[in-house]
Amino acid sequence: MTSTAPKNTYPWDEYEAAHQNTFSPPNIPIKRAIPPGVTEEAFDQAIEALAAVVGKDQVFVGGALSHYIDPFDIWDDDESKRKVPGAAVVPASVEEVRAILHVANQFNIPLWTFSRGKNLGYGGPAPRINGSVALDLRRMNRILEVNDEFSYCVVEPGVSWKQLIDYCAEHKKKVWPSTPSLSWGSVTGNSISGLEVLLADGDVVRTGQFSIDGSPNAFISKFTYGPSIEGLFLQSNLGVVTKLSLWMTPTPPAFMECTLCADEFQHIEPMVDLLGPMRQNGLIPSCVWFMGCWEILSARGKRVDFWEGPGPVPAWRMRELCKELDLPYWTARWGFWGPKRVIQAQFDEIKEVVEKTQPALKLNGTIFSGCNGGLVDNKSIPEMNALLLTGQSSLFSLPTIQWALPKDGSGKGAHGDYAPLIPNSGKLTLEWIKKSYECYEKRGIEPMIDFFMHERHILMVNMFMYDQQNTRDRKAIYDLYHDFHKLSKDRCYGMYRAHVNYMGKY
To answer: Which PANTHER family would you find in this protein's record (predicted)?
Structure first.
């Protein structure tokens, strides 16, 4: 076993530095935790057995567990509430995972499984039950296949978006992976289909056509063979995903980045009601990302760069900043992919509707085409046009967590989210945001809201940026989370996912 924190978790200097900085040791050392119902002697025997499976250098204890807690935990200084594992184990193969499951069953040890542990707004790699053994799958990071003909890949769970994107570029694959704002996370976090899953008893389950040995349809047809059970393994602890398939976008001959902007707070209602039907009827083929001005501002600097007064940036100052920096209050962003004439026709259809029904809104489209009738080279697209839409890796949003830090450089930037699902309705969206603003103002936190429009629902993201080392900030975030949950409960809205600190609390 080793108490030295993991090194070389990423092969790229920028990503490794970001990881090490994020998971820097907490202010209060981590005390040993034993899972409920397990004796210390039995736990020690289990750790020895795990070391026999993967080697002592891949079993982490003591101070090394700083990489297996929530780096933004509001209970960072409260041992009675902080979520901590008892150990972490890092397998490299299905066989090692099976042996780990055998040890866990033998000693009655709960496991907390994750691929990269980078969903930091919801607890990251921290376990639900203290003393659990963190099952870290980052070493299971083989890209098994990238198929140009049918535009899919097959990967192990430790593959990051950055790794997949680089692989496609290096091997000149004619596909674009979909990408999040931070490419250090695992592709498994966003996609669960065509699975190989290891159950707790060591049995292997393959889903859909993948369950037929040698099937040519294993990764190109979903939900077509036997009962669909993929959902059992999405955001659950019912099995360990060891392989999965991911559908990707064929590299198009042309790409257009589109934005729809509004200068007034209340314009969010007509924006949603304008774009919602277009998502539902397929005119807009993909998720639409709505960003508020506060979030965009946080990507440009810290609070103290724009406001030196006490507390959060006031609404009147934000209006001034929007004018000074030419920031829209709301920006909706999406893409079109395909033949240039088809893309232009889609854009023109939207433009006609905007001009007729919502002339106060500003629609823009920037198109990029391949050379000499060829496919688009996504690396030729400027970063701010390409982000999230063209299969390129990025850490662009990481600096936003520094928003609440003081001018002297002290403190530790952190963030969290509360993310309810609401119907795709302008009226309900505006109502939720108005109520949320009241909660933000009450707790002295800037209203950083963005959301993602799907065909029939919206995934709302109420973000909060704070200084983890500031007691007032941590208390405000705790209260704010409960404020948002009450709003959701009163409206029967469910969450997209829950932070580990609040699982089982409501």
So the answer is: ARYL-ALCOHOL OXIDASE VANILLYL-ALCOHOL OXIDASE (AFU_ORTHOLOGUE AFUA_3G09500)-RELATED, D-LACTATE DEHYDROGENASE
**pLDDT, tens digit, 9 for 90 and up, residues 473-487:** 999 999 999 999 999
Number of domains in the chain: 3
Alpha carbons 263 and 330: distance in angstroms, whole number:
7
CATH at 180: 3.30.465.10
Structure tokens at 69: 């807690």
Q: Which residues of the chain have pLDDT under 50?
A: none
Q: Is residue 124 part of a domain?
A: yes
Rounded Cα–Cα distance for residues 290 and 313 (Å): 21
Q: What whole-number distance in Å separates Cα of residue 415 and Cα of residue 73?
A: 9
For residues 278 and 284, the answer to whether their CB atoms sit within 8 Å is yes
pTM of the model: 0.93
| Alpha carbons 65 and 84: distance in angstroms, whole number | 8
**Separation CA 499–CA 388 (nearest Å):** 24
Q: Could you tell me the two tokens for 455? A: 């065909």
- State the residue for tokens 């004018």: 323
Question: Range of 32's domain?
Answer: 13-136
Q: Where are the beta strands (DSSP E) in 271-411?
A: 288-292, 330-338, 362-369
pLDDT digits (tens, 9 = 90+) for 412-443: 999 999 999 999 999 999 999 999 999 999 99
Of 250, 282, 316, the position where a domain reaches its end is: 250
215 within domain boundaries: yes
Residue 7 lies in a domain: no
